[in-house]
Amino acid sequence: MNQPPDPWLRIAATPGMTATAARRLIEALGDVRTIFRATPGRLASLGLSPEVAGKLLDEANPGLIAALQWMEERDEHRFVSPEDRSYPSRLRELPDPPAGLFVHGRTDVLEDPMIAMVGSRNPSPGGLENAFEFASYLSRCGLAIVSGLALGVDGGAHRGALAGGSPTVAVCGNGLDRIYPPQHRDLAAAIARNGAVVSEFPPGVPPRRENFPRRNRIISGLSLGVLVVEAGLRSGSLITARLAGEQGREVFAIPGSIHNPMTKGCHLLIKQGAKLVESAEDILAELRSVIDLGSAPANQALSGEEASDEGLAPEYVDFLELCGHDPFSVDQMVARTKLTSAEVSSMLLILELQGFVESGPGGRYSRTSKRS
């Protein structure tokens, strides 16, 4: 090697090393570079296992070599250390900031004002639509969107942000030499062109279950607030919301039907003090007190205005009103309208084609959020 690797890169690329352990060593030894002049025994006396200490001091350790090779592959593959000006100031505020970030894409976006959007990996059609529409609207208002690249709400939020034109940041729970889930490979490439895909885990680290709570603290830590779009009671999104509260970030939640198990997590958060969100303006009103935000083109579904049913025949307007706002079946609509099953199915088909309702699992239908 022509020059010694960044000491923070050596820390970040060593399995078993954490930012907390690094800070403990720095407090004892005085400087991050002093760590690499210590003996394995000295590091072990400060709490590192002999195995981790040996890997940390070895410039040929496989984790470091893999990280350096990944960085050499493309110009947009970078490592941002705590000593780098590109290291996000909001992460510096955390009690457990990452020892560095591996970044595929633009490092300048990491300082942009961000709102985190998280939720179920298996959302309802309405939940997925909300993720896209809220992200698109907030993006057009000048907020970058940060999420976790997962299936479901995360993917909808990233796509909405790309449609809105502001950068989006995906935080991963694995090394950036692979994309997880693989279905989001193209989405990750689009995110990297517009914003950044980041991870504190070095190349070669697989997406282990225990990695995701650590990832979640970065999602919330980068943001001014976290919006939970749709989540069950056991969703990992509730971990992100809890971390956001501990980090002093705003927590927002979109309510839903009391019959939908995928909204019970949001309802719990609201009971615990999260801000109930009915429109994007509810979020903007909170954030405008701390940052300067622009305005976006009017969007009825997200501005709190009623969407127009103009163009529908009166009998379809009445039918749509009877649909209510909870998922419903054809049999339920037969009972409510006194129409035949064939008549109800025909009307639902017309309304679905016009975007007023959408079909979901189990043969149930829902009114679309932009028409509700």
Can you walk through the features of this model?
The protein has 372 residues and is α/β, with parallel strands linked by helices. The protein is built from 17 helices and 11 strands. It has helices at 7-12, 19-29, 40-45, 50-57, 62-73, 89-92, 125-140, 153-164, 185-194, 211-222, 237-246, 264-271, 280-287, 300-303, 314-323, 330-337, 341-353, and strands at 77-80, 101-105, 114-118, 144-147, 168-171, 196-199, 225-228, 250-253, 275-276, 357-359, 365-367. The strands form 2 sheets. It has a 9-stranded mixed β-sheet with strand order 1-2-6-5-4-3-7-8-9, sandwiched between helices. A two-stranded antiparallel sheet has the order 10-11. Strand 4 (144-147), helix 8 (153-164) and strand 5 (168-171) form a beta-alpha-beta unit. The termini are far apart. The relative contact order is 0.10. The model has no long low-confidence stretch (mean pLDDT 90).
Q: Count structural domains.
A: 3
- Which shape, going by the Cα principal axes? elongated
Helical residue percent? Answer: 40-55%
For the largest beta sheet, what order do the strands appear in spatially? 1-2-6-5-4-3-7-8-9
Number of helices: 17
The helix/strand series, from N terminus to C terminus, equals HHHHHEHEEHEHEHEHEHEHEHHHHHEE
Distance between the termini: 62 Å
Query: Which residue ranges are poorly predicted, with pLDDT under 50 across at least 5 consecutive positions?
Result: none
Rg, alpha carbons: 24 Å
CATH class identity of the largest domain? Alpha Beta
